[in-house]
Amino acid sequence: MGQLEGKRIIITGAAQGMGAVHARLFVEAGARVVLTDLQADAGAKLANELGKNAHFVPQDVTKESDWESVAAEAKKRFGGIDGLVNNAAIWWTKPVMDEDRERFRKMLDVNVIGTWLGIRAVVPAMREAGGGSIVNLSSIAGTRGIPEHGAYGASKWAVRGLSKVAASELGQWNIRVNTVHPGAVEGTGMFLVPESEFETLFQAQPLRRPGRREEISGLVMFLLSDQSSFVTGHEHVVDGGRTVW
């Protein structure tokens, strides 16, 4: 049996990048997965490739009605919800003094409001199932003040705080909430550095390389699985040691 055998999991932002790697790994581990994304063609194509245990639903995570549809479709398709990965996010860099108000608000809408709506949408089904696990993707930008990450950092610090409160409130129903804080990871839109620059960029990092997407997905899978049944309310940093000092 796989690590996620029989688990019914929603993954947002799953049409490409990190979310797509989550989806592939979870299906291989025995889960039944609902993929969501704004990129309908790419999401539907991936779900088709993954087979009967994957289903795609178009979604804008900032819309409450879309969340209602996703939760309803997960229950209809797979009979319930055991896990949620709030993976969808947007990112850019800009100095605090140059940031635009509306763009800042958009960052918060997607990264924070979308996460909160997701938590709220899946709790009823998780209570019916006797519990569940919610994994919210934050960032090391949610643990440090990284220059030119004002809007993004604010959103990821907010995800960190929201998750702790949710863990405190939802634990009475055996619903666990944890955050994952990746550092630089290859193959994501948030890491666009050529390999020729790795030595300079990572010379002060204990593990002198960027992370692989599968390494993040492996941690997320652990937090969704029964192996982490006594783990909630915590921040799990996976950054090659970048933030040890």
Can you characterise this structure?
The chain is of the alpha/beta class and 245 residues long. It has a single domain, classed as Rossmann fold. Helices cover 42% and strands 15% of the residues. It contains 7 helices and 7 strands. It has helices spanning 17-28, 40-50, 64-78, 101-129, 150-170, 198-201, 213-224, and strands spanning 8-11, 32-37, 54-58, 83-86, 132-137, 175-182, 235-238. The radius of gyration is 17 Å and the shape is globular.
Number of domain modules:
1
The helix content, as a percent range, equals 40-55%
Low-confidence stretches: none
What is the annotated CATH architecture?
Answer: 3-Layer(aba) Sandwich
Q: What CATH first level would be assigned?
A: Alpha Beta
Number of helices: 7
Q: Structural class of the secondary elements? A: alpha/beta
What name does CATH use for the topology? Rossmann fold
Radius of gyration from CA coordinates:
17 Å
Query: Which descriptor suits the 3D outline?
Result: globular
Total strands: 7
Mean pLDDT: 94
Overview features:
single chain, 7 strands, seven-stranded parallel β-sheet, 245 residues
Write the layout of secondary structure elements.
Layout: E1 8-11, H1 17-28, E2 32-37, H2 40-50, E3 54-58, H3 64-78, E4 83-86, H4 101-129, E5 132-137, H5 150-170, E6 175-182, H6 198-201, H7 213-224, E7 235-238
Parallel strand pairs: 1-2, 1-4, 2-3, 4-5, 5-6, 6-7
Helix pairs in contact: 1-7, 3-4, 4-5
